[in-house]
């Protein structure tokens, strides 16, 4: 990059941050109002060309709960809501990373997804077919075993985020965290519907729900090792990654995969995925 191009980038970044901070001052001024999250979502538009924003409550003893969304095209809205707020969230790499203890911070999907995730049926079905090609996430602890996630989506018409854009989103993470933490302390307390759901719960924490789903799927037909391989395939792991994770050879992985396909009467990853999602909806 030439010096002139570098100077232009610095000027653009400075201008974007100036407008961002202006919008965030406005967001903090409205933090006690019902549409507080709308102001946060609007501010991101000054930094990068984000197509849509989804903000949700992640609580250890129930599925995620939608707090706010904007920009999700109507024809994709049901697919995205179905992906993350019903059974499909159990295969989402972000959800699985949270279940495994992901610390608060800013993450890009490529940083947390399995090695073969972008060729997986889950990605094709719940990302590409739902109008989304990549995600970035802010994860903020709010206390009481809960976190709030702010998801930024890029769709078919959106640009792929460049390294400098991702760095810009990372740079504002402390202010995002401050706002979301304050909203968690004040805004969630006013939301009686969410409070009621938190009080009721749905039995068992998220980690146990994830483990139970994977342990029970195909349990009447598959061996324990075959179920483990099936779960790795569904999550988007390659043969090599599966072998490494399970400490077995790639040839053994292929053998188990062939056997489980035969037992479940499926002939491809897409059929396995469809079978698992249908099983989730019934359980």
State the CATH class of the largest domain. Answer: Alpha Beta
Order of helices and strands: HHEEHHEHHEEHHHHHHHH
For this structure, the CATH topology of the largest domain is Beta-Lactamase
CATH architecture of the largest domain: 2-Layer Sandwich
Annotation, overall tally of beta strands: 5
Shape: elongated
What share of the residues lie within helices?
Answer: 55-70%
Q: What's the mean pLDDT score?
A: 82
Unreliable runs: 1-9, 192-204
Structural class, by secondary structure, is alpha+beta
Structure, explained:
- It is a single chain.
- A five-stranded antiparallel β-sheet has the order 2-1-5-4-3.
- A hairpin with a 5-residue loop joins strand 1 (52-59) and strand 2 (65-70).
- The chain has helices spanning 3-29, 36-43, 74-85, 93-99, 109-112, 121-126, 163-171, 173-190, 192-200, 206-216, 224-235, 239-246, 250-264, 269-282, and strands at residues 52-59, 65-70, 105-108, 134-143, 146-154.
- The longest helix has 27 residues, at 3-29.
- Mean pLDDT is 82; it is low at 1-9 and 192-204.
- The chain is of the alpha+beta class and 283 residues long.
- The chain has two domains: 3-200, Beta-Lactamase; 217-282, Winged helix-like DNA-binding domain superfamily/Winged helix DNA-binding domain (Arc Repressor Mutant, subunit A, Orthogonal Bundle).
């Amino acid at each position: 990059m030439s010096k002139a191009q570098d100077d232009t980038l610095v000027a653009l970044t400075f201008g974007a941050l100036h407008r961002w901070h202006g919008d965030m001052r406005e967001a903090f001024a409205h933090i006690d109002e019902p549409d507080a999250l709308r102001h946060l979502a609007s501010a991101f538009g000054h930094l990068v060309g984000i197509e849509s924003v989804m903000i949700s409550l992640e609580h250890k003893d129930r599925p995620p709960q939608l707090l706010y969304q904007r920009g999700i095209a109507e024809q994709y809205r049901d697919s995205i809501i179905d992906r993350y707020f019903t059974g499909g969230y159990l295969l989402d790499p972000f959800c699985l990373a949270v279940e495994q203890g992901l610390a608060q911070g800013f993450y890009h999907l490529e940083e947390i997804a399995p090695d073969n995730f972008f060729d997986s049926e889950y990605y094709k079905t719940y990302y590409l077919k739902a109008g989304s090609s990549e995600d970035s996430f802010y994860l903020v602890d709010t206390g009481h075993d809960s976190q709030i996630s702010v998801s930024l989506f890029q769709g078919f018409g959106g640009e792929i985020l460049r390294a400098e854009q991702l760095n810009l989103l990372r740079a504002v993470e402390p202010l995002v965290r401050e706002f979301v933490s304050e909203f968690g302390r004040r805004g969630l307390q006013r939301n009686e519907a969410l409070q009621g759901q938190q009080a009721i719960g749905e039995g068992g924490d998220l980690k146990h729900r994830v483990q139970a789903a994977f342990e029970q799927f195909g349990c009447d037909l598959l061996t324990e090792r075959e179920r483990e391989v099936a779960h790795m395939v569904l999550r988007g792991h390659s043969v090599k990654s599966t072998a490494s994770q399970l400490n077995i050879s790639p040839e053994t992985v292929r053998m188990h995969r062939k056997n489980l396909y035969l037992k479940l009467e499926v002939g491809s990853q897409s059929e396995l995925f469809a079978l698992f999602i249908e099983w989730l909806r019934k359980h």
